[in-house]
Amino acid sequence: MSDTILELLKSRRSIRRFKPTPVPLELVLKAIDAARYAPSAKNSQPWRFIIVEDPAIRRRLGEIHAYARPLLNAPLAVIVACVSEESPTSYLLDCANATIYFMLAAHALGLGTVWIQTLRNIGELREILGLPANVTPVSMLAVGYPGESPAPRPRKPLEEIVFLNKYGEPLKT
């Protein structure tokens, strides 16, 4: 089982083109159910998930900046937003964890996703989604059945990113 899980982690790709096939709400809820098990400071679980099926809202979200365009061809979007006072010092990290859990669960269910940044457009997103001032949109995800199969992107070698005991000290193997 551990090799299967490791392969799942390594095989996830950012999907920017989607088939027009609608995604059953049950699948999205299954992925959200898994995402709510993500770690959070003091188990605060400050996340909120907004499923956007409405094409007009998805269009507005997809036009918010150039990298949001995958939302224009995805059957739906999921926004992960955080209630800041529920985890004042780590809500961004907590909701980033929930985002990753959602993406991995969606991948396991045969869905594709791409993480679209939100932090430069918080005000616009609050207006589009009706978010109160204490709720920060941390990620937007285009979600659907993959319409592409991107090849793996190169990864840095372990020797370049792993140190032993102190930064810069090479790992001796």
Mean pLDDT: 96
Radius of gyration: 17 Å
Record field, number of beta strands: 4
- Kindly report the CATH topology: NADH Oxidase
* Content of β-strand: 15-25%
Q: What is the CATH class designation?
A: Alpha Beta
- Segments where pLDDT lies below 50 for 5+ residues? none
InterPro entries: Nitroreductase (IPR029479), Nitroreductase-like (IPR000415), Nitroreductase/BluB (IPR050627)
Protein name: Nitroreductase
Organism: Desulfurococcus mucosus (strain ATCC 35584 / DSM 2162 / JCM 9187 / O7/1)
Pfam families: Nitroreductase
Please explain how this structure is put together.
The chain has 173 residues and is of the alpha+beta class. The chain contains 6 helices and 4 strands; from the N terminus they run H-H-E-H-E-H-E-H-E-H. Helix 2 packs across helix 4. The protein has a single domain, classed as NADH Oxidase, CATH 3.40.109.10. Pfam families: Nitroreductase. InterPro entries: Nitroreductase (IPR029479), Nitroreductase-like (IPR000415), Nitroreductase/BluB (IPR050627). Keywords: Flavoprotein, FMN, Oxidoreductase. One of its GO terms (molecular function) is oxidoreductase activity.
